[in-house]
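INFO batch 0412 | record 1 of 1 | parsing
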Amino acid sequence: MKEQKTLGLEIGRILTRSVDDRIAPSISDLKTVLGSNDDVVKLLKTSAWFLKSDLQKTMMPNIEFLRNCGICSSQIVSYVFSFPRFFLLKPESIKQFVERADALGFDRKSNMFLAAIRMLSSMSEENWELKLKLFRKLGFSEDDIMSTFRRTPQVFAVSERKIKQVTDFLLNRTNVGISFIISHPMVLICSLERRLKPRLLVIETLESKNSLRRKVSMTTIYKMPDKKFREKYVVPYLKELEEVSMSIVGT
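INFO prediction complete | emitting tokens
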């Protein structure tokens, strides 16, 4: 009910604005960026507040600047849907985040460049320092931390609690060291309860019964799509896995 009331107030504010002075130009700008009326409608269903913003002062100059930084239009459009408020930041702020990414050694040609800028925009200086402190405590060198950020900026959005839990869990495995986590930071984003634990249980159970012809790497365990993992390591071994909880096997 509260969300419906908030949406109603939002729509009410939008409708009080001049169609010619704000709404029509905003729709025109969005169509220029997104390319079709259908995509404009799709975006406005979740982000109607675009219509109350002066996009010529925020979104349009921000997108132009990002394009000049070498970021392709298709990636920008994808981010408009995923992180719409990012594009309504003041252009001066976007430029500052780009400068920070440059200072951190980010390659503007990397397809992770926009992800890095967006991540920096979502973190306060204090939270950034806390995350750096956490990685140092876990055994990451300064170079390791920067390498992780350049390759997988999204890791810095993961909570400290989850990073600690995943790291502790993996380091307790006999064949996993900190070097693996440093080389594969995406593993820190994986769900511990829904992916890492159940998959390792399946593989360890099969290995203990000598059911597998070759050892399965941790990279395969955490990266393989769910459907393929079930088809390759669960369905053919249902008898061997009968001791494993079906709730876990079916994850």
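INFO post-check: The mean pLDDT is 87.
INFO record closed
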